Amino acid sequence: MKRRDFLKSSVGAGMAAGAALSLGGYEKLWTSTSSTAKYDMVAVMGGNPDAMFDLGIQEMGGMSTFVQKGQKVLIKPNIGWDVIPELAANTNPLLVKRIIEHCFKAGAKEVYVFDHTCDNWVNCYKNSGIEKVAKSVGAKVVPGNSESYYQQIEIPGGIKLQSAKVHQLLLETDVFINVPVLKDHNSTRMTCCLKNTMGLVWDRGYWHSNNLNQCIADYALYEKKPALNVIDCYNVMVKHGPQGVSKEDIVSMKSQILTTDWVAGDAASAKMLGVAIEKIEYIPIAHKMGLGNMNLDSLNIKRIKM
Amino acid sequence: MRSPLLRRTRIVFSTFIFICFFLVFVDLKHIIPAEYINILLFLQFIPSVIKFYNLETLAAAGFLVVLVLTLLSGRTYCSLLCPLGIGQDLFSRIGGRFKRKFRRYGFKKPFTILRYSLLAITLIVTLIWGIYMITLLDPYSIFGRFMTYFARPAVIVINNFLAGILGKFDIYTLSNIPVKGFSLVVYSVPVAFFILVGVLSFTKGRLYCNMICPVGTLLGLLSKISLLRIKFDEKACTRCGRCSLGCKSSCIDFLKHDVDVTRCVDCFNCINTCQDKALSYGIVKLKKKVHETDESKRKVIAGSFLLLFGLSRVSNGQQKTAPIPKKDSTVKENKTYPVCPPGGVAIEDFNKDCTACSLCISACPNGVLHPAFTQYGIAGIMQPVMDYHKSFCTYNCTICTEICPTNALRPLVLEAKKLTQLGKTIFIKDNCIVKTEKTACGACSESCPTKAVHMIPYEGNLVIPEVTDDICIGCGHCEYACPTIPYKAIFVNGNAVHVAAKKPLNVESDIKTPVEFPF
Predict the structure, then answer these.
(1) Are the C-beta atoms of residues A25 and A252 closer than 8 Å to each other?
(2) How far off is chain B from A23, nearest CA to CA, in Å?
(3) Burial letters for B131-168: b for 16+ Cβ neighbours within 10 Å, e otherwise?
(4) Are residues B52 and B147 in the same domain?
(5) End-to-end C-alpha distance for chain B, whole angstroms
(6) Do B286 and B353 belong together in one domain?
């Protein structure tokens, strides 16, 4: 059993790595995985987070498009702040819960959840409501509070960010599902798919002091990319982001965006927030670097209203 | 009473108390509720005296219970309730395995001059200058520092080792805790005391308690008139001397059939050792001779209480200048005051009441409290200070204010704490990434819980921080998050007296709930 698992995962990893290396261009690797998904993007509006996900993932071809039997899955929500779910500084716990359930249904062997939080991690995990729901459906909630959990990786081609320390879970799992919550951000104007990766790394300060927007785009070069991005736009923090002060910062948008292209996901999110895509500097940078497509008109988007 | 159960009960009870104290200080997951911690702390003598002095409520009158207990039963406090005393018993026990028991103790003369001088000096210094001697000598605080600076880090190392192993098996019930060391200088005091107390108890039993500890000396004086005590049955005694050789306080003069009650901590070892059943614990009629010596010493007792409660009021009335901390010249963020923890209210008052037991430092879930070196001036060494280079004060937490045994940190409800300004945030534009690198950053504003630190338009598409003073609470998250080195571009300058911050105003956005996808 163990040997079989080992062979499977090593062959899988080898293939992925080989593909990444031999094909060079990221876009080709992308099309190879997204070819199985029916749309580049599915946007759902009008339901609860879990119901919207049920519908959205179905339109994307079901969770089994992204998660194979026996695979280990990493779900990376935003759990950055010690704030209750109603204030939407963290990903909606209902959504996280439903994604985990779909992963297990698709045959995932293990599902892990973690974030490198900004506030005290114990409080964030607890007060976001995510730890409780994730554990209740069988996921493993893993700490990210200590440098000892992080491992050095290289980012060839990065302009400002050539290396980083990422959480070991990112390296040890087979599938990475990025589950950001859409929010206003005081400095980059918006935080969503690409910026959510700051919770995967140990030293965020380096990003902040070395051209934040470029670092955010640079990180997206790293070979371990999300198989799927699920953007929580149920309650959207439209000002005072990314932490928020009170409920006045929140607008109920009851929406959700599922996409395999995180640059496209960020572009669509910018529109949701009512900010010009070019104003969010890392989006055009990432687009120019070939990390995704911010021209939403050229994408195959399915829009659903519930 | 001559039951062997006396000793056994003492051992069981004191072990329980010791374990409780140990757990409170090494509670890595912060799961012990503050109410339980406060129950445990209630009877700690010096913290209770200070708290009572500040609050004048019976809820803080644990020391009165101790005094009554002493009048009834002698220095049982030292054996049953003092964690430092119990810890010393543990050390003596280990020491006994290395040194032959019968050579260790035996009756010795008391260090009368030394111990009473230390008590007097402690009282005088405390009343006239401040809390320094108590900070150094309060047994509970000494114990607290041992736990915070030695036991807790040791437990963290073990925890991290286990967490590492469990992590390999995909189990995350234990998590790795980053070890945050304190500045080396502040270790000097606990290290010196650990050596002193450790060596004395290892070789000489309770010598520390009977020679140096001011609480021990004070309760010893009171024991002179205590009701219950160890007594000799002179007819049954064969003067074999076993009791004396087994007495860790070295206070039994078996030839004279005399037990020095000022040093006896009621451990009851002698009762069990005595083969002639000549020793028992009960009511003793005072001998005439004892009475004579008592008179003068009772005056000392009375005097010291007068000093304790009377003079301190006098000294309190004196106007003292606020301690101005020495500015550390290497730190460019020019702080005029250190940031005193929430509940401290005024730095000056806080410095007077804190005995540096370090419980708050152990209990802080964010590790933002650090022992001060010179931030409060030399007087405030080891008292907790907010170190915003190491961490920040988490918005939804009041634990340090809830557990302070001396009331140096006064209890704050969460809503009040969220509006308590510990210091004011100062922005140094010339250090800021946005100005120096001309790139976006915003780490400070991102982490600000009240948005006192917010971004305003700068060159081009860039935004740069600005601080609104009156809604800032001085939590230091901005300072902690600021990525510039070695000097931060934003820092919190402590308030000499904490002030109330305004509640941040917020208005609804004009962005409406969408009905169509905007893309």
Answers:
(1) no
(2) 32
(3) bbbbbbbbbbbbbbbbbbbeebbebbeebbeebeeebe
(4) yes
(5) 89
(6) no
Give a yes or no: residue B333 inside a domain.
Answer: no
- Mutation target for B interface from A119, A256, A277: give the one with most B CBs within 10 A: A119
User: By residue range, what is the domain housing residue A238?
Assistant: 36-305
What's the mean pLDDT in B18-46?
94
For residues B106 and B163, membership in a common domain is answered with yes
DSSP, res A201: B
Asked if residue A135 lies in contact with residue B172, where contact means CB atoms within 8 angstroms, the answer is: no
Check: CB of residue A283 under 8 Å from CB of residue A277.
yes
Q: How far is A214 from chain B (nearest CA, A)?
A: 9
Task: Give residue B283's pLDDT band: very low, low, confident or very high (50, 70, 90).
Answer: confident
Q: Is B89 in a helix, a strand, or coil?
A: helix
Q: What is the pLDDT of residues B428-466, one digit of tens each?
A: 988 898 988 899 999 999 999 999 999 999 999 899 999
DSSP B341: P
A-chain residue closest to B178, CA distance: A146
Residues of A in contact with B483 (CB under 8 A): 204-206, 208-209
Q: How big, in percent rounded to 5, are the helix, strand and coil portions of chain A?
A: 40, 20, 35
Q: Whose CA is closest to A219, among A57, A19, A33, A26? A: A26
In a domain, residue A2? The reply is no
Distances (CA, A) of A287 to A24, A217, A282, B1, B325: 17, 9, 8, 88, 53
Q: Answer yes or no: is B329 within a domain.
A: no
| Cα angle, residue A92 at apex, residues A90 and A94 outer, rounded to 5° | 150
B266 and B363 inside one domain: no
Amino acid at B207: L
Give the pTM: 0.84
A243 touches chain B (CB under 8 A): yes
Judged by a CB distance cut-off of 8 A, whether residue A161 touches chain B is no
Which CATH number goes with the domain that contains A108? 3.40.50
Q: What is the CATH number of the domain that holds B461?
A: 3.30.70.20
Among B176, B443, B506, whose Cβ lies nearest the Cβ of A149? B176
Whether residues B351 and B227 fall in one domain? no
Task: Answer yes or no: is the ipTM higher than 0.90.
Answer: no
Q: pLDDT band at residue B307, thresholds of 50, 70 and 90?
A: very low
Q: Are residues B240 and B101 in the same domain?
A: yes
Per-residue model confidence as pLDDT tens digits over B96-154: 777 665 456 888 889 999 999 999 999 999 888 888 899 999 999 999 999 999 999 99
Is B256 found in the same domain as B356? no
State chain A's maximal CA–CA distance in angstroms. Answer: 55
CA dist., res. B495 & res. B400, Å (int): 18
> In which residue ranges of chain A is pLDDT below 70?
1-36
Task: Closest CB to B483: pick one of A149, A209, A272.
Answer: A209
Count of structural domains within chain B? 2
- Reduced to 3 states (helix: H, G, I; strand: E, B; else coil), residue B458 is coil
Six-digit token string for A209 = 């002091």
Q: What pLDDT does B100 receive?
A: 61
- For residue B31, give the amino acid letter: I
Q: Note down the domain range covering B391.
A: 347-500
- Tally of structural domains, chain A: 1
Instruction: Assess if residue B507 is contained within a domain.
Output: no
Distance from CA of B385 to the nearest CA of A (A): 19
Q: Are B302 and B354 in the same domain?
A: no
